[in-house]
Design a protein that fits this description.
Blueprint lengths: L1 H9 L3 H70 L7 H11 L8 E10 L3 E12 L2 H13 L5 E8 L7 E12 L3
Antiparallel strand pairs: 1-2, 2-4, 3-4
């Protein structure tokens, strides 16, 4: 069979031999491309993408670490601040006590609890809508200060003050969030 193939090739003209060589090279490259070239090319593309991702991560990392350090410091400050806070008392009774004793609310007041949310396994945040009237800006100022920095600090998220006409009465509406420890 080998002699027949050699004889067959020797009988061909130089042009037919060249065309046969081109056909064999083309067929060989078509067979070798998926086996050798494509995997290498895909590996280079994958490596290039990984390098690009790592470069982006490298550029962003300092800013992320700086933000993390700031947030960690803020968290530690908050935990330090709230470590001395008594969260065992009911925030509703605390607000009512402040309204009576500090704000010296003139007339009836209204504290409406709204649905709060659980904070982890140890605390629950409670939201309250508070409406009252007072005749003294000093009492209102003392109330707000005690509400936000007192023995059971709360977060003030909205406040509306309304003084109509010549009357000395100020109508106050506010939304506050208080925290309470969950009993275990």
């Amino acid at each position: 069979m080998k002699e027949e193939l050699i004889a067959f090739i020797q009988q061909r003209t130089p042009r037919e031999k060249a065309m046969g060589a081109v056909a064999i090279i083309t067929l060989a490259s078509m067979m070798l491309y998926p086996l050798l070239v494509a995997p290498v090319r895909e590996a280079f593309a994958r490596q290039s993408k990984q390098l690009e991702d790592l470069s982006m991560t490298y550029n962003v990392t300092p800013a992320v670490l700086t933000r993390y350090a700031k947030l960690l410091t803020r968290r530690q400050d908050l935990e330090k601040f709230y470590s001395g806070v008594d969260l065992s008392a009911d925030p509703l009774s605390y607000i009512e006590k402040l309204l009576r004793d500090t704000a010296k609310a003139s007339g009836p007041y209204n504290v409406t609890p709204r649905e709060g949310s659980t904070l982890g396994e140890r605390y629950v945040a409670k939201i309250f809508l508070v409406n009252f009237q007072t005749t003294s800006m000093e009492n209102l100022s003392a109330f707000l200060k005690e509400l936000t920095t007192g023995t059971q600090p709360m977060l003030l998220s909205a406040i509306t003050l309304d003084k109509r006409g010549a009357a000395d009465t100020i109508t106050v509406q506010l939304e506050v969030s208080g925290f309470e420890a969950l009993s275990k």
